[in-house]
Amino acid sequence: MKKLYLIGGTMGVGKTAVCQKMKRKLHNSVFLDGDWCWDSDPFQVTEETKEMVMQNICFLLNQFLHCSAYDHIIFCWVMHEQNIIDTILERIDKTDCNRTVVSLTCDPDTLCRRLEGDISRGVRGKDIIKRSIERLPLYNELNTVKIHTENRSLDDIADSIIRIRREEVT
Asked: Number of structural domains, the chain?
């Protein structure tokens, strides 16, 4: 039985770092970051590009699900709306696949500190803090397991997600 992890959270909450840690902890695993499926310059959010990225994500997830080399498929993306999660789950082959859907959260002060570090390293623009903090409350409305990340190590967060055994979203 394959195990699919969908890991959501606002920008800067630690999705990529946690998923990279999970990839190293889980045998026969593969990791896909949704941002890789439309990394463009200029970055354009239109109806066409939103549908394209969804098709790209679902195609790649299905490829990983059908590949015998992988037992654990780890995916992260902002996924701040239930319809994004639902669309992905509708478009992938869930045969012989348990799914765990998680939202990583943290308090606004922690998020701000993390993003300020990214800004100082030139990884993100200054506008990210306001946009990311505005999205934080949206995750409370989702049908996901919530995992708070403040004052926790990447190992601890990854282990918490891995320990979720039951299928959290049907």
From this structure: 1
